[in-house]
Structures are given as C-alpha cells and as structure tokens.
Amino acid sequence: MEKSVFLWFALLAWAGVASGLEVSVKDILKVDEYDRDHRPNYLGGPTKVNVSLVIHSLIVDESRQLLELSGDLIQEWRDDNVAFAGGSYRINSVQVPATANSAIKESLWLPDLHVSRQVFPTKSGADFLRIDSAGRIAWTQKVHFSFPCKLNLKSYPLRSHPCTLRLESVGYLSDEMEPEWNGDPPVVYSSVVVSHGYSIAKVDPTSKISLAPGHKTKRQLQLMIEVAPRSGWAVKHTVIPMVATVTTAYLAFFINIRGVCARVIICMLSLVTAAIFHESTYRKVPPAHDTMAIEVFTGTCLAFIFVAAVESVVVDVLGHFPTKGRQPLSPKRNSFALEPLFSQPDLTDDHASSRGQVAAIWLDRCFRVLYPAGFLAFNAVYWVVYN
Ligand SMILES: *[C@@H]1O[C@H](CO)[C@@H](O)[C@H](O)[C@H]1NC(C)=O
After folding, report:
1. Rounded to the nearest whole angstrom, what is the distance from the C-alpha of residue 50 to the centroid of ligand 1?
2. 76 lines ligand 1 (CB under 6 A)
3. I need a surface site. Which of 186, 193, 219, 345 has the fewest CB within 10 A?
4. What is the DSSP string of 335-364?
5. Separation CA 206–CA 71 (nearest Å)
6. φ, ψ at 319 (rounded to 5°)
C-alpha cells in the first residue's frame, strides 16, 4: 500500500516537472500581449542597442570598387515587456533559432539597423535570438554586406584603401534609437579571410551623429576598414620585369654602332614587352582617369626604352653621314661585339671614320652613363614619393 502511494507521488511530481518545462516559449514571453510596433522603452528615452561584429571574410572587388563583408552581427538590447519570472519556469533564458518564419521573431520588436549606401541588399542568413529572464535580448545574425569603397587609385597598388561601412537605423532618429559599438573589442577580425593580394591594416569602429533628411539626426555606426595591398605582388609581377626590360634596352648602347639592326631589334622587343606590362596594369582596376602609381612607373620605363630606340636610330644616321673619302668598313668590326665601356674608341687607326661616326660613338658613350643614371634617379625619386 505504502509502495503504491509513493509511486503515485513520484508520478505526479514527474508530470508536474514535465508540464512546467513544456510551457511554450510564446506563453513565457507573453507574446499575445506584446505590441511589436512600440520600440522598447519608448516612454523613457532612446532604445540603446549594443552592436558588435565578427568579420569572417572580406572580398575587395577592384573593378567594381566594392567591398563585400560577411560575418556575424550581434545586437543586444533590453525589452522589459519580454522579461519573465524565470524562477517559476526554472529557466533563465530562452533561445529561439529565428528562421525566416519563426513566430517569435515575427512578434518581437527588432532593431532596424542597415547599411547606408549599400550597393546590393544585405543578405542575411541564419539568425538566432536569446532572451533572458531580465528582458535582455541578444540577436545574432549572419550577414553579408556589399558597400562601395572608393579605391585609392592614385597610389594603386602601393598604398592602402580606407573603406567605411556605415550602419544606421532606417527610420529611428538619434533620440529614439541609440546604436553603440560594444564589446572588447567591438569588431573581431582575428580569423578573417581577405581576398588575394590584400590584408587588413586597421579596423576602427566609431560612431557619430549624421544628418538625416528634414534637419533630423540619426546615430550612425561607422567602421573604417583599411585594406592594404600586399605590395610584393606588384613588385614581383610588374616592377622586376620592367626593370629587366629597361636593362635589356640599355644593352643596345654597347652594341657596335654598325650593328643597327641588332640595336633596333633589341629596343623594339623591349618596347613591345614594356607596352604589354603597361597595359596589364589596367586589367583589374576600373577605367578611371586617375593616373595610378604603377602606371607612372611602367610609363616612365616605356619612355626610357623609347629614348633608347630613338638613340639607336640617331646613331645609325650619324654613322652614315656622307663624308668625303669614305672607305669600306673595317672587316674586324662585328656588329654584335660589345665595346668596352671606358676604352677610347679605336677610331684613330680607323681612317674610314667620318666626323659623324665620331659623334655617334660619343653619343653612345654619353648614353651609357646618362641612361642608367637617369633610371636610378627616377627610381630613387619614385620610391621616396610613393612610400
Ligand atoms: C550595453 O553595453 C553597456 C556597456 O558595456 C552595458 O552597460 C549595457 O548593460 C549593455 N546593454 C545590454 C542590453 O546588453
């Protein structure tokens, strides 16, 4: 007898606990009495929303001047109307995976932060609501923002681009809703994946009061993200080949002045190669009228090679200057022979030499010194100015 009474008591106790846990989230939050059109604390000042962001990936779209950011946006605020007596349910928070058609998400007030000046609508994926018994709500959202970022084309690709993400409420003014960066740090990007060739140099969250239409003000959260190009890429794929091409053109000055064919071929091949590299600097950037830093470099290299080509032709013209008593050229001379840099031209024993040829050889000797000196000077100035 005693045994069965004990059994009944146990069964009743179990049923009580079970029914206590099975109260629906809707009942706990008293959603039926909740008016989602009133923002929390609407009688007592602005609704404060704590915002933090975890950046997972960042894509720099150079041709469209866009930054695509994906990560977790976490917003926390207090809503006294959903506070519940945790003790009577033996729980102190409810968690709602807020899928698109979740009834709880549909019936609660949610902050309307969005990206101002966005290019494409924000894509938001899964989100999650956590509500504790004191009425604190934490809303985690998977977001994908695309926002414009004017690339710093004048110093492309050597310097970083500051890009600003701006978050603000669609309609609430600064005295109605107060979003604020919160957390330590508010923006986490330690495990971010950045598109190839870039890295994040700096992330700076700030907030300011911005002007909304109609002389009203809104509180705007700003996030300055500085994306820095890895300059090694440009150096490897443009600067080193260009320097090699200019050096090749320089070799033409060492070819005998009678080998005009070899000289012009070297210069022309260098010119074509340099022109290809020059054009390829445009491959990724928008067709802007800004002169890019890399363009200044490749353009100057092109100019140097062009000067070398012109010099070769001038030397040839001088060498064929008609003079009296001209005799056939010495058979010793080979058009591909390199002349020693600082030796006297052996014109003294070459009786066939005209004054034109002397001038040509002196021109060559001048260029052998001036050309590399000019190129080094340009490089010194360029890398000081752009670094
Ligand atoms: C927001 O952040 C402030 C400062 O850290 C804190 O005092 C406040 O409780 C937070 N609000 C919510 C709703 O979490």
Report:
1. 6
2. yes
3. 193
4. TTPBPPTTSPPTTSS-TT--HHHHHHHHHH
5. 18
6. -65, -30
| Contact (Cβ atoms closer than 8 angstroms) between residue 193 and residue 68 | no
> For the chain, which domains are there?
23-229 (2.70.170.10), 233-385 (1.20.58.390)
Nearest CA to 276 among 311, 237, 250? 237
d(C-alpha 79, C-alpha 317), whole Å: 89
Query: First vs last Cα of the chain: how many Å apart?
Result: 93
Ligand 1 geometric centre to CA of 78 (Å): 9
Residue 376 has what pLDDT?
Answer: 95
DSSP conformation class of 292: P
Whether ligand 1 lies within 6 angstroms of the CB of 230 is answered as no
Is residue 77 lining ligand 1, measured as CB closer than 6 Å?
Answer: yes
pLDDT in tens, 151-175: 888 887 788 888 889 888 888 888 8
Percent of the chain, pLDDT > 70?
A: 84
Beta-carbon-side half-sphere exposure of residue 105 (alpha carbons within 13 Å): 18
Assess contact for 274 and 242: CB atoms under 8 A: yes
Query: How far is it, in rounded angstroms, from Cα 376 to Cα 382?
Result: 10
Residue range 342-365: mean pLDDT, rounded = 67
Reported as a single tens digit per residue, the pLDDT across 4-61 is 545 454 444 454 444 545 667 777 777 777 777 888 877 888 888 999 999 999 998 8
Extract long-range pairs of 200-206: CB within 8 Å, 24+ residues apart: 200/58, 200/225, 200/226, 200/227, 200/228, 201/160, 201/226, 201/227, 201/228, 202/226, 203/55, 205/53, 205/181, 206/181
**CA–CA dist 336, 345 (Å, integer):** 16
Q: Is residue 130 within 6 Å of ligand 1 at its C-beta?
A: no
CB distance 271 to 309 below 8 Å: yes
Phi, psi of 78, rounded to the nearest 5 degrees: -120, 130
Determine the Cα angle at 13 with ends 8 and 19, to 5°.
125
pLDDT higher at 339 or 222? 222
